[in-house]
UniProtKB/TrEMBL annotation:
Keywords: Oxidoreductase. Residues 28-288 form the D-isomer specific 2-hydroxyacid dehydrogenase catalytic domain. Residues 109-287 form the D-isomer specific 2-hydroxyacid dehydrogenase NAD-binding domain. This is C-terminal binding protein. Belongs to the D-isomer specific 2-hydroxyacid dehydrogenase family. Pfam families: 2-Hacid_dh (PF00389), 2-Hacid_dh_C (PF02826).
Amino acid sequence: MAKYRIVTPAFAQVGYALENEALAGLDAEIVEAPMDEAGFIAAARDADAIYAKGMPITKAIIDSMQNCKVITLGSVGVDSVDVKAATARGIPVTNIPDTFIEEVADHAMMLLLAGFRRLLEQDKMVREGRWKEGRPALLKIPRLMGQTLGFISFGRVARAVAKRAAPFGLRMMAYDPFIEEMTISDAGVLPSTLNEVLSQSDFISMHAPARPEVHHMLREEHFRQMKPSAIFINTGRGPTVQEEALIKALQEGWIAHAALDVLETEPPSHNNPLLRMENVTLTAHVASASARFDEARKRRVGNELALVLSGKWPMSCVNPAVLQNTALRRWQPVGMGRGPNS
């Protein structure tokens, strides 16, 4: 029997070779467990670590753990884990906030440009033999240079988007009460209030992480503050937006367009109005995907597990206060991230 037992939900994965690269020499094994709460609790009660994927890691699961040293996620978002419960038990929760920043930033910029230049509408015109309608439609749209891009939350992805947007001549502003103003200013972006971002921006790019305090952060009153010509972009998390309010804003012309990689419920119901709206561009929560995606994140998961199981601090801990607990002071600091919004 291995010295360290890592339990993970049996969710759509064949083998753990990449995760095991960093675990080599630690005498650790990754064991799959049932994906129902009761079954997972029974299998994971004595585990040394949880590799979280495919199912919620609830308070009940966390409170049942007798020897858990870390809960590790292969994603930026940590909404599938009850972080508060883990913190109460002194269990670090790790994520991978910096592994696919470039891909998400590329995708956000793609959605901005596709929405602004009405890419789907133009494509449809050509396919339907309406060639001559393309130019008149775009003659109603201003040039991109000089338009204002507003960010809600200014973490790593938003900063990478700002780098891409600057050469297009966009004026940029950002609202993030958790980021120092100098950090925002140094990126060539104007620190702003939420009301300023909503009312002044031609493009509003949502990057807030999925946390309880930002659930439905944007509601009807916020969409009413936006320009009728505004394009709303979301590559963050769907539940940060009250989708019913967004749909109403699009239907009633409070904003012009939405370009979304994330939705409140995924996959969406077949009767979700967003699926039938011509002023909406949709992708299937794929912004982070690229040829390096799976390999990079799985190796990072293995690295985080190996660090904690060998008595070191993880690279990215979303609840770093637990690392100061008396029971954990034996750890050797390797480095800590600032969490999912860093």
